[in-house]
Amino acid sequence: MTDRRDESWVALDAGADPVERYGQLLRAHEQFMAAGRVLRPVRPLVAASWQRSARARVSPDGAACVELDEEELAACRDAHPLARVMPLIRELTGAYAGDGEHLVAVCDALGRLLWVEGDRRTRSAAGRMNFVPGARWAESAVGTNAPGTALAEDRPVQVFTAEHFRRPVQRWTCAAAPVHDPRTGRLLGAVDVTGGDGLAHPHSLGFVQAVARAAEAELALLAPPPDPEGAFLTALGSDEALLVADGRKLRLSPRHSEILVLLAHHPQGLGGDELLLALYEDEDVSPVTLRAELSRLRAVLGPALLASRPYRLTARVDTDFDTVARRLGSGAVAAAMTVYGGPLLPGSQAPAVARLRRRHADQLRAALIARADPGLLADWAYSPWGEEDLPVWQALADALPPSQRAHVQARLTELTRDQALATGLQRRRA
């Protein structure tokens, strides 16, 4: 049985010597860089993050990239939902940061720092590693760090000194917690506290969690009252969609998620034969199987939301993938990216869902390539769904100045070689 302490999100056990632990972690970090093996006392959380960072080909040295200039940063701040709760975040964290000479940072869901505030000398020191507004601190870009890893894990985390993947960050300790839209559950960003060794105390993790929860509560108070006849479906980036309706949040099974996505996409409804073909690759599946699945779904949703003949949803259901499409349609590519949490039900094999998934991804990819914005292209390229997307990596290489192309060009060369090998293998098999 796994020891629960090994799964702790707190960086240091009570009574642990921070200097001794720092030395142990430095040795473990160097061993990982040399041989790819993770040694104790590296926590499972950190080990998994190091491995993701290595797969993303993050360099252990260097600084974060500042992706937003002053004008872009101002626009992102103004448009971001967390701007509405920044007065509350400042009120809750001001004394804590000031007394401890810490920094408080708030990032968006892409890991871009929108606000970095706190002690002047600490801000100056952090600026030397580009821990500044406009910089991208996603885990896939700079490796293990509290805000980036909190977003990747969607959990509150602490990162202590040499647990950071990049060496220039290993004198720092930080704690961060994700913030969600209280209505839809969508990840909005994270609140982070960064400073010295003292932040490895469990109190700092509890503090930043409390700030994140207070921000969510404030967002709920500021939000307009929900449409009593409407609902919202979140289906990007997960095989289990989340439906918010009638004041309830329902996490749906993969098959029920597919049905809700298709019915939301076809508000006029689908006949039984149409839904059967849309859901099942095997044309021999009996209509009885579908009716049984719909009966189970009706029991989950309640009888008032799902009607039959044709099968349809009786309430207006907005979706995150429709939100992306609307923003693309208005030319708001950056705004569309902030909503895009990944491919639509990525594991679904339902034919109609797969077609819809490809259509949405292709439209967003094409818009990103046409926009030729290095920051937006990097957000896609360094994501789990974009790490092998050759056209986007090529567009990113073309959009970057020559001085910043080395890593991207190396990845592009690797992808081109892998694609050529795969094509050659397919030809030999044919």
SSE arrangement:
Elements (H helix, E strand, L loop, with lengths): L17 H18 L8 H12 L14 H10 L6 H15 L2 E6 L4 E6 L1 H8 L11 H4 L3 H8 L3 E4 L12 E8 L6 E9 L6 H21 L7 E5 L7 E4 L2 E4 L2 H12 L6 H8 L7 H15 L4 E2 L4 E2 L2 E4 H10 L3 H7 L11 H21 L2 H8 L8 H10 L6 H24 L1
Helix pairs in contact: 4-8, 12-13, 12-14, 15-16, 16-17
InterPro entries: GAF (IPR003018), GAF-like_dom_sf (IPR029016), OmpR/PhoB-type_DNA-bd (IPR001867), Sig_transdc_resp-reg_C-effctor (IPR016032), WH-like_DNA-bd_sf (IPR036388)
Keywords: DNA-binding, Transcription, Transcription regulation
Organism: Streptomyces hundungensis
Describe the structure.
With 430 residues, the protein is α+β, with helices and mostly antiparallel strands. The protein folds into 2 domains: 4-222, 2-Layer Sandwich (Beta-Lactamase); 227-372, Winged helix-like DNA-binding domain superfamily/Winged helix DNA-binding domain (Arc Repressor Mutant, subunit A). 49% of the residues lie in helices and 13% in strands. The chain has 17 helices and 11 strands. The strands form 3 sheets. A 5-stranded antiparallel β-sheet has the order 2-1-5-4-3, with helices on both faces. Strands 8-7-6-11 form a 4-stranded mixed β-sheet. The protein has a two-stranded antiparallel sheet with strand order 9-10. A hairpin with a 6-residue loop joins β4 and β5 (187-195). α12 runs parallel beside α14 (351-371). The longest helix is centred in the last third of the chain and has 24 residues, at 406-429. It is globular and about 65 Å long. 42% of the residues are buried.
